[in-house]
Amino acid sequence: MAKEKAKTVELGALEAKWTPTLLEAGWTVLPAALIEHQKALGIDAIDMNIILHLANRWWTADNRPMPSKNSIAEAMGIDPSTVRKRIQRLEKANLVRREERRVRGRGSKTNIYHLDGLINELQPFAAEMVKKKKERMAEKEARYRQKGKPKLVVNNDEDE
Hints:
CATH class of the largest domain: Mainly Alpha
Structural class: mainly alpha
Radius of gyration: 24 Å
Largest sheet: 2 strands, antiparallel
Distance between the termini: 59 Å
CATH architecture of the largest domain: Orthogonal Bundle
Number of strands: 2
Shape: elongated
CATH superfamily of the largest domain: Winged helix-like DNA-binding domain superfamily/Winged helix DNA-binding domain
Order of helices and strands: HHHHHHEEH
Strand content: 5-15%
Helix content: 55-70%
């Protein structure tokens, strides 16, 4: 029950930011470590956009994304060969892994994409972010404790 209430509150906060209509159309969760450390990972704007498209099609841990390179390219307004080259580059960097799907007598289907490499590369960044967050919270808590309770000052001087 508490988890459901937390999800409702969280969704309400998202709706307040993005509107219910936009969220109803669909939304994607991304780790802050990916956004904040893309440069350190060697990910540029095009690569990041491709990763966003893969993440947008990845609904559950065991149901990997399978978008076509053409659909990604069309949404980005770039050539499908650029998407193919960039995915190859992400593969060489061990951030994305393609799994080919072939159907006997019918040829290739869209690839399945695995982001395990990206997730593994993000772990140290995320751990550092968590450490800094905890340090900031501890510092904030220490400042509150140091200040103590507010004191009421009463001036009883009759001269004034």
